[in-house]
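Researcher: We're teaching a course module on how sequence relates to structure. For the next exercise, students receive a sequence and then see the predicted structure as tokens, so they can try to spot secondary structure elements on their own. Here is the exercise chain.
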Amino acid sequence: MIPGAFPRSLARLSTAAIARIPRRAFASVPPTAAGSKASHRWKWAAYLVAGTGAVSAFVAYRTNPWDQQDPDPTKKTLVVLGTGWGAVSLLQRIDTSEYNTVVVSPRNFFLFTPLLPSVTTGSLESRSVITPVKYFTRFKPVGATFYEAEATDIDPASKTIEIVDTSEIKGTVTKTRIPYDYLVLAVGAESQTFGIPGVKEHGLFLKELSDARKIRTRLMDVIETAGFPGQPEEEINRLLHMVVVGGGPTGVEYAGELYDFVNAEIKKWYPEVASKVHVTLIEAMPHVLPMFSRDMIDYTEQSFKDMNIALLNNTAVKEVRERELIVADKEGNKTTIPYGLLCWATGNTMRPLIKGFVPKIKEQTNRRGLLVDDYLRLEGAKDIWALGDCTASRYAPTAQVAAQQGIYLARQLNDLALSERTGNDIAATTPSFTYSHRATLAYIGGERGVSDVELPIIGKMISVSGYQSYLFWRSAYLSNLFTMRNKVLVAFDWTKEKLFGRDISRE
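Model: And here is the predicted structure for the students to work with:
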């Protein structure tokens, strides 16, 4: 028989006869709807079980780290001073099996500084923006040592560092010296006061978590004091005048957070004083946010005008007193401004440790910070690197720069250890540090933001403002938080704020 041809017996049958031949039942019965639904239910149940198991395993791992190997005493000692952006980015990627890694810092956590202004008004809780240092060192195969202490002196000749216990609880030993073979300086900077009288005594800085807590307490204190019985009208106006000095991202974002707090909480819970609250931002330069594009600067200044935030550009602070500050415009005309809360968010200056260290190295001649070469090596010193805000590099003192420097230096130190162990000069081929700018973001209040975003594919920058930029600002910072724990906490705080408002309790 030819393949594909009918058998002769079937060929002799009529069409009607062929139609009467019984067919196989399973060929014509479609699957029942009930069976299809059951199959889908089992499939989604399997997905749910697998997802739940994966999340449970991840949480169990992050909350119950495995045992670590002890550091090898024959390895060289790498000391990292600081737990900021640069230090933490380095710790995440350094191969601790190659070094006896020691971390020294007066705080045992990493602070996500871009979200610090949100802590001052209760938009975020303080615990949501900090991550313990152990989260970055405890999950490595080989352990790293952490000392909660303040480094007070560096001796490059003997390669030792003096550290002091500055905590409230002290033991019998509060000061000692530790040796190092390699040293990484990532101690950051402190707020610049420019030698203006009264700033340290009466101003509130916004650098550390403790600063945000002080501002939050002071904010509610002046509001409650303004409502005290018999308070004179002039005194009420002074108490409710919030002044921010500094037109950079920190100052602008804090002014925006204050605007949100007044409109969302003060008007609701303190209607009797809400109309008397005023926010003023003072900037010595002609415009705020000088690192942004001109369109974003103009948008910010117009938005502040719309939100009734007084903006004093070209205005320099000459003196700060307990209840007022003296300012001068570009013509030199002086004015007295009463205030109830003063937030000082200006530039950076060297910490005392760096100020004391610089004179020991003759090549260090910059008063703004430490001089480093293109490989982040300290000028005039051997086996010392520096990164972040404590340096006087050509890059802006931002979290982006410090984080990228930390990643670069970790790779360089890993290559250096491999070169010493194998005898191959791998470190010699390490390229110099190159900063890759991604975006400049700022929140300006009223669910508005400004963004200058680099598009590397087309080599151009785009500027986005308004509500879209606000959403981008939130999503960018949420994604850049280091741990899932922090991401969940921050997202929960934002949701809680929308549903229930901010906490107005004064601690």
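Model: If you want an answer key for the exercise: The first strand starts at residue 76 and ends at 81. The CA atoms of residues 13 and 19 lie 10 Å apart.
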